[in-house]
Design a protein that fits this description.
This protein is α+β, with helices and mostly antiparallel strands. About 30% of the residues lie in helices and about 20% in strands.
């Protein structure tokens, strides 16, 4: 392996990141469903030819996909080895979450890249398809007890062999979705992104040569590891613990613990999840690849300047007990993985706050509130509106939390109200900040939001909710206060009702003119509330973010003198 100078390394790093970024942009522009096109729930990257480790990922892709896509590529490597052949132009496709992580809505495409007849690396694309079968439109089934009730399960198979597409696979995929046009468009977008990635890699290697680019990829991994070790070496040695809970698993109304012990020794760190709840009946289980990837996302939040490269995780040992809901085995349901990984990030942040509170923020709102509203139009054609919704982020050492932000597991954005109203027979009666939802503190949490969505279709609709934080609020740190609880309600003939499981429900019948309402949590506060400046409190009251009576209770009444 030849040495590579720092300037060339920097140039090649930027070029390869640009390839992944351009693949992201290609899919975002071509995808049919708003979860990819508008929310950017997708990712692309380059992966090691032998190990499948992440080499480069685009900046627009979801961070959670950095780790799980590595497992997806490893699965393809094992599949190709078992088959005994791998050719230029092969493309593998699958959605099996127990192999590739996350959930069945995320369709993964993996393509080997060859140079001069030799395997150089893998390119991969993952995108959240709008519907892949199962019992619930949009695939977030809060009552699932096995994976088959969530969606159609596809193991790693060849979509293309030596450049020839297998139409039979496409036919199977399109027969197992309520929205075949959307699925076809998303698939074509992912294929287009991979084609572009191949062309850009050819151009790069034509310019610099395979040996130089291979040296750069190797150096990037070593440097990511060195940077991570240097960061850890600057932190105090010790062991710190934290725990939090999921409301329930959607089947049994019992809380589920997520526990972590964080230990730092010199330039290495261990995250031990012993004591977390066992594998459960409902769909808040996650597979081991998802757990490891979530640990990586939390680390990237704490150390934001580190590169998106597998070398970052080499100094970090993630220990997960067998039989826990963090290492669930097939065919356990995993459709609600988002809620569990958000709680994992919360407990890692809470534990890290005890070691270095200046490095972390308080808990964010902690749920994507996956809401599906589905029905049939007057012409008999089905429609499925699936989306996720925002909330407040936690206060930090530097200031208040972000109001109405996106989940910290991703860079995905909330689809615009105008796009959703244009695509589906619904109307947003309300899309606003939720007053008094943030945790108090020297730096308060960000505000949650209120969404009220009315059904316009004369045939009515059904609604399905998969959320969390209905019973365990987002935690403050450094003596900050907790944020508000999540609240969901739906309109019926005799008034507004609430689900018995607080944050999960399926099959809510809605007539034309009836609505659902989400009131999302705010973030936890950072620091003691009595240390917040009176002028900041007065400003929040003047803006309607905090009621005057609540401000008196939380911060004292000195703010009234400033407001006068």
């Amino acid at each position: 392996m030849s040495e590579i100078d720092p300037i060339t390394l920097s140039v090649l790093s930027g070029r390869m990141e640009q390839i992944a970024d351009e693949m992201d942009a290609t899919l975002f522009r071509a995808a049919f469903n708003p979860i990819i096109a508008e929310a950017h729930d997708a990712s692309h990257g380059l992966y090691h030819a032998g190990s499948g480790d992440t080499l480069v990922q685009g900046k627009s892709g979801l961070p959670i996909f950095v780790g799980v896509m590595s497992f997806a590529v490893k699965a393809v490597i094992e599949k190709a080895a078992a088959d005994g052949d791998l050719a230029d132009g092969d493309i593998f496709i699958f959605n099996d979450a127990h192999i590739g992580g996350t959930h069945l809505s995320d369709m993964r495409l993996v393509r080997p890249y060859f140079r001069d007849g030799q395997l150089f690396c893998y390119l991969a694309s993952v995108g959240h398809w709008h519907d892949v079968g199962g019992a619930v439109p949009g695939n977030y089934n809060p009552a699932a007890t096995e994976v088959f009730q969530e969606a159609f399960v596809l193991p790693p198979v060849r979509l293309a062999r030596a450049g020839i597409i297998n139409q039979d696979i496409i036919d199977i995929l399109l027969r197992n979705t309520r929205l075949p046009q959307s699925a076809r468009g998303d698939l074509n977008g992912q294929l287009g992104a991979l084609d572009l990635g191949i062309r850009r890699m050819d151009e790069l290697l034509d310019e610099y040569g395979a040996e130089t680019v291979r040296s750069a990829l190797d150096a990037l991994g070593h440097r990511a590891e060195a940077l991570m070790r240097a960061e850890l070496d600057d932190l105090p040695n010790g062991r710190w613990e934290a725990e939090d809970f999921l409301d329930n698993d959607g089947i049994r109304d019992e809380p589920l613990a997520i526990r972590v012990a964080l230990e730092i020794k010199g330039d290495s760190m261990t995250l031990d999840f012993a004591g977390s709840a066992p594998q459960c009946a409902g769909p808040v289980n996650i597979a081991l690849p998802t757990t490891v990837a979530t640990a990586y996302v939390a680390i990237k939040h704490i150390f934001p300047d580190l590169p998106a490269n597998a070398g970052v995780m080499r100094p970090i040992n993630v220990e997960v007990p067998e039989g826990s809901l963090l290492s669930a085995e097939f065919p356990s349901p995993t459709g609600g993985y988002t809620e569990t990984i958000l709680r994992m990030i919360d407990v890692i942040f809470s534990a890290f706050a005890k070691a270095a509170p200046d490095r972390v923020v308080a808990n964010a709102y902690g749920t994507i509130n996956a809401l599906s509203i589905a029905g049939k139009r007057s012409d008999g054609k089905p429609w499925v509106m699936f989306s996720f919704y925002g909330g407040g982020h936690g206060g930090s050492p530097e200031g208040d939390g972000l109001n109405h932000g996106n989940a910290p597991i991703s860079t995905a954005t909330i689809p615009p109200m105008e796009i959703l109203e244009a695509a589906y027979p619904v109307m947003f009666r309300k899309w606003a900040l939720r007053p008094d939802s943030a945790g108090a503190g020297k730096h308060r949490g960000g505000m949650g939001a209120v969404y009220e969505i009315e059904v316009l279709e004369e045939n009515g609709a059904e609604a399905f909710l998969f959320g969390e934080r209905g019973r365990f609020a987002p935690k403050g740190i450094a003596d900050g206060e907790d944020g508000a609880l999540n609240r969901f309600s739906y309109e019926q003939d005799d008034g507004w009702e609430r689900p018995p499981l607080a944050s999960k429900m399926r099959g809510i019948k809605l007539r034309q003119g009836q609505a659902v309402r989400l009131e999302t949590p705010g973030g936890g506060g950072y620091g003691k509330a009595e240390e917040r400046s009176a002028s900041d409190v007065a400003r929040d009251v003047a803006r309607g973010l905090v009621a005057a009576e609540a401000a008196d209770r939380l911060y004292g009444s000195s703010w009234r003198e400033v407001s006068q």
